[in-house]
């Protein structure tokens, strides 16, 4: 093949586009400001969604992580990316941990986290 100037085509790696931060929903300021060293549990909860490939299509896993303990304190898995997915993970974390007021909960500012339903759950 090389002698004839031919090259095999490699399949392109599939890359999942995970965050849609291009929305008109309100976004909270970054209060964490890269201070990743909380001094106690339930001061900072991080959250994100990951894609899990299966033989039947994609599943989506939303996780809430306590930054101090580095433990998953809430999670949910669904076959969709609607707001209900991270909201279920947040609800689990809130029910299990019962944090005091002042909790920081930064996210990637995706549309699920900026939705009215998610913000309402954070305020309550």
Automatic annotation (TrEMBL):
UniProt entry keywords in alphabetical sequence: Plasmid
GO BP terms in the entry: DNA integration
Pfam family, one: rve
Domain of life where this protein originates: Bacteria
Any GO MF annotation of the entry: nucleic acid binding
Family annotation (SUPFAM superfamilies): Ribonuclease H-like
Residue stretches making up the Integrase catalytic domain: 37-124
Protein name: IS3 family transposase
Species of origin: Azospirillum argentinense
